[in-house]
Amino acid sequence: MGVFEGFWELYEDSFPEDERRDKACQQRLLDNPRYKLIPYYKEKRVAAFMAFWDLDDFLFIEHFAVRQDLRGHGYGSKIIANLEEKYEKKIVLEVEPPYNILSQRRIKFYKKLGFYLNDYSYVQPAYDRTLNEVRLYLMSYPIPISPDKVDSVIEKIYKYVYNRTGD
Hints:
27% strand, alpha+beta, Aminopeptidase, two-stranded antiparallel sheet
């Protein structure tokens, strides 16, 4: 199995349809200089991946997943720590509201790593016309997003990640 195919399998398994791109769109992103897709391997198989955007003054983690059978073994924490060390920038990511055990665990995981759950209204735009927008929260590292910066952070995410301006 090739690199992209290994990533794609984990991507589809890890994210609901409304929170992921279609395959062709995802492949096109690989040519975008702001976008980075980093696969991590265990025994020649994609064990995890991180897909993020360098938005100049911060990184935006769009997708991050660890294979289900490897969760709870420290892989995710190490990957986040490597990102923080390599880029030395603020980091922003989206999480689902804490409505169920899985989303509560995810928020707890990021908080343990020093992320803050920001209490601002935020909607992930639909990736395309066939999908729905998703109400989410933004988490940030190493500090909360200040009220005077939240609009500019969201505008940058919308512009570069979701290709939306002035919606």
